[in-house]
Specification:
This protein has about 100 residues and is an alpha+beta fold. It is about 55% helix and about 15% strand. It is elongated, with a radius of gyration of 15 Å.
Length: about 100
């Protein structure tokens, strides 16, 4: 199986543990969002995320909005910067895939 889930059966196989894509977290949330989740072992400013991942600030904002909508990160304005925290849900999700 490649990294693309094509059907509900593919998802069922993934969840059952019978098959596992080479990069399952990337298959689920995408490579940039997976990298953001991995980067947030400690709260981090959005600008540092952009620099660390070689993304534009607007690209980071785009990905952070999606991760926040999924309940995986929280963004907090501190002065003129945005501090990003991984939520408990985000940490648990990361743990599911990083220990596989």
């Amino acid at each position: 199986m490649n990294n693309i889930l094509r059907s509900p059966r593919d998802l069922a196989e993934l969840l059952s543990g019978r098959t596992l894509p080479a990069a399952p977290l990337e298959a689920l949330v995408g490579p940039q969002r997976a990298a953001v989740l991995r980067m947030l072992d400690r709260p981090c400013h959005a600008g540092a995320i952009a620099s660390g991942l070689h993304l534009t600030p607007s690209a980071v904002t785009y990905h952070l909005k999606a991760l926040e909508a999924a309940g995986l990160v929280i963004r907090e304005r501190v002065g003129g910067k945005v501090l990003v925290h991984r939520t408990g849900r985000g940490t648990r999700l990361l743990g599911l895939y990083e220990t596989s």
